Amino acid sequence: MKPSRIFRNSLLLAGLAAAAAHAAPLPAPFAAQLNANYPAIETLYQDLHSHPELGFDEHQTAAKLVERARALGYDVTTGIGGTGFVAILRNGPGPTVMLRTELDALPVQEKTGLPFASKVTTKNAAGETVPVAHACGHDLHMSAWYGTAKLMADNRKAWSGTLMLIGQPSEETVHGAEAMLKDGLFTRFPKPDYALSFHDDATMPSGTILYHAGPFRASSDVVNITVFGQGGHGAVPHEARDPIVIAARLVMAIQTLVSRENNPLDPVVITIGSIHGGTQANIIPDQVKLSLSVRTFKPEVRKRVLASIAREARGEALAAGAPKEPLVQVEPGTDSVYNDPALIERMAKAAQGAVGPEWVKEMPAKMTSEDFSQYGQQPGVKAILLHVGAVDAGRLDAARKAGQPLPGTHSPQWAPDFKPTVTNAIKAETAILLDLMPKK
Fold first, then answer.
1. At a CB cut-off of 8 Å and minimum separation 6, what does 381 contact?
2. Mean pLDDT confidence for 121-144
């Protein structure tokens, strides 16, 4: 019989507490080097922040990281999965460990007021002019990635193995990891034994290293539904079949899949984010289109919920006497992120040695999605995603006392508390890599 999640987490916390006193600190030379490197890291951050690029169009972003990786002695290959790249540092026998950063920004107009705020606009895939901003912190991730890459390259004598650093395009569309894998990421290059990535977090004090064992980030799929009716005059609805009414019923029926058909211990979120139909008040249209976001943790729940959405759509159309069945199209997104509990315990212990036990905390799972999950789906690869708090502690405490929410990721006002966040992220990333790599 498997132990309960609560019992497993209790064991994990107890193990971390016992290990904290024995966690190896980050070597003193690394800390001094990080202090010396910080101005260049901050300069890179501000440059990346001011010049964001959308997914699969991160040409200049990738070039900036590639130039720096090559200067550090990494063997770099570009154009993987589009604008992605791989930087390899072979340093003797040992495991292959991968550290990923994302390259892309969001179609958001920045409103932070920072002196280096983005003013970029560009054409999206549909040809529309949109603003662009690093509203999810990928610029911070890239800066930490570079700081860690430099520490590891400058201290080759301290570890043995193969360090594989990747710049991944288009995480925000949850298709960048898939593109790199399809382009031979784990066949043209060494398949990693371990894969690591960090993400900034808007709910915890800056510099806090956050972990969660087991299912951590949800799978994500988009479902597009076209409901068909029979158009007509709004004054004689009995002569038509109103797809707006069918769609309205469907919106409510779909929520019962969560409240009445799903085990409440298996989280599911279904969000109907878009509904479009009709042109004016006195015309009944002949179709309505809906777009849904579906998030789950378990593959079997994911499969059942997607099938049930299609069933509900057919049922509502049948009940209303629609002229034909709705068109239900599923756009597969990404799988859920799973953090191996034993490896999480090891990584948390390494992070404690780097930043101090008081700065390493367990966090709850999140229903947001991350295509970093795709790497852990590959046989033989253990992948770990950690978070790092990115909000000034005083500001966060004041907001909580006032009951006022602060801007989070994907907000036009999102601006991480950079220095303490990136510093602890680099320390934790480096300590984890050193823990996974044998000493020379």
1. 186, 191, 192, 193, 194, 195, 375
2. 97
